[in-house]
């Protein structure tokens, strides 16, 4: 062994082996460990000591950490995997000089791991709740994201994946993703027509778009006769105009419901969607023109206590009155008083009778807070009435 | 004595710490796909690894097929190659590290690798003996670059790791921190599950784990830690004065300690097997003698 004299001297001076053995033999008995019995024999050294089973026990969340480690090991094992069609695009970052001696550092970390960018895998993984249910551990969003990152890394290996990887990925993929992929793409029918439906407000339009000269028929009538306003006519032909196909397609539309504008815009949407079936490349043009988005605006419902959907009644006044003060009001609206007296639910006890008086015209609500039965003599009452 | 002469050749005199030429360094460092050193003066292009090498992250910074990493193979040359002698800036130094400092160069404190080797051997012996007695060894490395190497080191010697955050209360509040996710007792599901404590903690970045150190001190658990020139080595039980910033260096130290512990585990298994054989043998002998 190539050691210097100095080093050997240092070792002998420390004499680690002997001292540590005696130190540890004593300390292991003194320490209150979880399972060991307190005996002073040397055979105690070989007694069975119970240990935690998981590698990540002391992290506090061992199942989650073990899972990450397992996925990482799998990735490392198949790091060199080459499938039939490698799809990984590698972005090469600037090389870091290997020697640290050349560059003086001042308390700065020098990380030597080179990171590479991989195109993101379009796999659908189980969502956080489902995944935590499956694994049996509560998952925070950040933890779920880390697991998904590892799964994406595994999924980005060139296809076809090795069987071990495939097994793992299957466990974590979302079920409905497979169903989504079986949606069949839209095609022209045997007569070369593209069909699409468009809706706006209460109108719905069924549109057939076929290669032709630029004729438009709406409910059997020509465009000029059906839509009197030029605005509506322009809306119908907008998808064709935007993609410069004004004289290349014929449109046949069956529309019902709603009014003129609604029908025109429903046709616009239908024609736009039908054109997409003909050629997907027009999508950005149509999207910018607004021919693909279904306009979600509909008539808002009326709410109770308000005049219309948003308009409210004019503001009301609450006047806490004694009943003898309100007699002037009562005098005027006596029939309404009786009507509303029947309706009040709060008017059960005499003490807290709330009398609501309303007028048709100005919607004034007068609430009388309490009725005080004052003991008055006959003279006083007469005086009150004839004041 | 090869390492000593090599060290001297590199160091020159005490005053002059010569930086090793880059070509020499590259042949010693064993990253994957490093090209052979050109005979002409090294240009920037020759230093840049080829694109094939960059397609994968550099996972194995130390090539073990060339020479296995064990405490018996450790030389000052290897420590130097891993950059373990580079301390922190002299303005940030901790005066208690003075015994371990060889000198200063370009504003950095240079750690005396002879001391490093001695303390590293001591730490390895501690780890080995604890493993022989069946102790649990916990590797703690919380920096983001240390995750892989901590986990590898722990796995190799049947130890445990904390490579993310050290949760405060892992030892002092074990019932809550560790008992939460632990499986309940099969016999008595109502009772809280049993918690365990490590018998040795190997800390790869003590500067960021003050809480771990104080918890270990409360529970009288020894700590082996890599102490740089800006950290007081008296705070841990078995300091190893070395550079804690270089991932390659820390990986080397973690591997060395892990291999020593693995050796201890193997010895324990061997001795247990021997004991079992002995008892069987004695039993048979007694049987024979009876007849």
UniProtKB/TrEMBL annotation, chain A:
Q: Name one GO cellular component term.
A: ribosome
Q: Does the keyword Transmembrane apply?
A: no
The entry assigns this protein to a family as follows: Belongs to the universal ribosomal protein uS9 family.
Q: What is this protein called?
A: Small ribosomal subunit protein uS9m
Q: Can you tell which superkingdom this protein's organism belongs to?
A: Eukaryota
List the InterPro entries hit by this protein, alphabetically. Answer: Ribosomal_Su5_D2-typ_SF, Ribosomal_uS9, Ribosomal_uS9_bac/plastid, Ribosomal_uS9_CS, Ribsml_uS5_D2-typ_fold_subgr
Organism equals Phycomyces blakesleeanus
Q: Which UniProt keywords apply?
A: Ribonucleoprotein, Ribosomal protein
Q: Does Ribonucleoprotein appear among the keywords?
A: yes
TrEMBL record, chain B:
Which InterPro entries does this one have?
Answer: Ribosomal_uS2, Ribosomal_uS2_bac/mit/plastid, Ribosomal_uS2_CS, Ribosomal_uS2_flav_dom_sf
Task: Please tell me whether the keyword Ribosomal protein is annotated for this protein.
Answer: yes
Any one cellular component term from GO for this entry?
mitochondrial small ribosomal subunit
Q: Any one Gene Ontology biological process term?
A: translation
Q: Which GO terms describe its molecular function?
A: structural constituent of ribosome
List the keywords (alphabetical).
Ribonucleoprotein, Ribosomal protein
UniProt keyword Ribonucleoprotein, yes or no: yes
- Annotated signal sequence is none
One Pfam family assigned to this protein is Ribosomal_S2
NCBIfam families linked to this entry = rpsB_bact
**Family per UniProt?**
Belongs to the universal ribosomal protein uS2 family.
Q: What is this protein called?
A: Ribosomal protein S2
Task: Supply the source organism for this entry.
Answer: Phycomyces blakesleeanus (strain ATCC 8743b / DSM 1359 / FGSC 10004 / NBRC 33097 / NRRL 1555)
């Amino acid at each position: 062994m190539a050691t210097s004299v100095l080093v050997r001297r240092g070792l002998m001076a420390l004499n680690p082996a002997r001292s540590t053995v005696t130190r540890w033999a004593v300390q292991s008995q003194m320490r209150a460990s979880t399972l060991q019995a307190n005996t002073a024999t040397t055979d105690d050294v070989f007694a069975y000591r119970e240990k935690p089973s998981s590698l990540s026990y002391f992290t506090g969340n061992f199942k989650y950490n073990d899972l990450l480690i397992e996925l990482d090991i799998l990735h490392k094992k198949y790091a060199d995997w080459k499938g039939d069609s490698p799809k990984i695009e590698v972005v090469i970052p600037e090389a870091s000089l290997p020697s640290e001696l050349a560059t003086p550092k001042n308390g700065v970390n020098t990380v030597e791991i080179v990171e590479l960018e991989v195109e993101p895998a379009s796999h659908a993984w189980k969502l956080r709740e489902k995944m935590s249910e499956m694994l049996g551990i509560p998952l925070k969003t950040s933890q779920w994201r880390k697991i998904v990152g590892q799964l994406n890394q595994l999924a980005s290996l060139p296809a076809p994946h090795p069987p071990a990887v495939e097994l793992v990925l299957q466990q974590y993929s979302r079920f409905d993703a497979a169903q989504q992929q079986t949606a069949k793409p839209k095609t022209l029918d045997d007569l070369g027509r593209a069909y699409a439906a468009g809706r706006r407000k209460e109108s719905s339009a069924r549109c057939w778009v076929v290669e032709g000269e630029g004729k438009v028929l709406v409910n059997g009538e020509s465009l000029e006769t059906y839509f009197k306003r030029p605005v509506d006519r322009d809306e119908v032909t907008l998808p064709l105009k935007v993609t410069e196909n004004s004289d290349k397609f014929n449109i046949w539309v069956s529309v019902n419901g709603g009014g003129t504008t609604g029908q025109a815009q429903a046709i616009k949407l239908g024609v736009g969607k039908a054109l997409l079936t003909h050629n997907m490349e027009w999508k950005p043009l149509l999207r910018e023109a607004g021919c693909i988005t279904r306009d979600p605006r509909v008539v808002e419902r009326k709410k109770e206590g308000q005049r219309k959907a948003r308009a409210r009644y004019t503001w009301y006044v609450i006047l806490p009155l004694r009943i003898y003060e309100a007699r002037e009001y009562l005098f005027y609206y006596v029939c309404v008083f009786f009507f509303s007296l029947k309706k009040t639910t709060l008017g059960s006890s005499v003490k807290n009778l709330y009398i609501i008086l309303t007028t048709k015209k100005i919607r004034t609500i007068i609430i009388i807070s309490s009725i005080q039965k004052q003991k008055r003599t006959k003279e006083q009452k007469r005086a009150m009435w004839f004041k | 004595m090869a390492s000593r002469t090599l060290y001297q050749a590199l160091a020159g005199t005490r005053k002059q710490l010569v930086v090793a030429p880059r070509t020499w360094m590259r042949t010693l460092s064993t990253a994957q796909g490093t090209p052979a050193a050109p005979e002409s003066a090294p240009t920037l292009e020759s230093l840049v690894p080829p694109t094939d090498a960059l397609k994968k992250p550099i996972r194995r910074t130390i090539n073990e097929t060339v020479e296995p990493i064990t405490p018996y193979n450790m030389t000052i040359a290897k420590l130097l190659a891993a950059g373990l002698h580079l301390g922190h800036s002299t303005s940030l130094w901790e005066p208690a590290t003075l015994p371990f400092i060889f000198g200063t160069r370009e504003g950095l404190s240079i750690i005396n690798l002879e001391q490093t080797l001695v303390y590293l051997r001591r730490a390895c012996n501690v780890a080995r003996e604890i493993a022989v007695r069946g102790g649990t060894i916990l590797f703690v490395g919380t920096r983001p670059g240390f995750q892989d190497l901590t986990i590898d080191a722990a796995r190799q010697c049947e130890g445990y790791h904390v490579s993310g955050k050290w949760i405060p209360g892992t030892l002092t509040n074990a019932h809550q921190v560790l008992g939460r996710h632990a499986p309940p007792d099969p016999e008595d599901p109502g009772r809280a599950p049993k918690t365990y404590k490590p018998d040795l903690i190997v800390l790869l970045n003590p500067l960021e784990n003050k809480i771990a150190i104080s918890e270990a001190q409360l529970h009288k658990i020894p700590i082996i830690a890599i102490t740089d020139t800006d950290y007081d080595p008296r705070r841990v039980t078995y300091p190893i004065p070395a550079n804690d910033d270089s991932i390659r260096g820390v990986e080397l130290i973690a591997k060395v300690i892990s291999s020593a512990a693995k050796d201890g585990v193997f010895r324990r298994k061997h001795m247990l097997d021997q004991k079992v054989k002995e008892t069987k043998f004695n039993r048979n002998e007694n049987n024979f003698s009876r007849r």
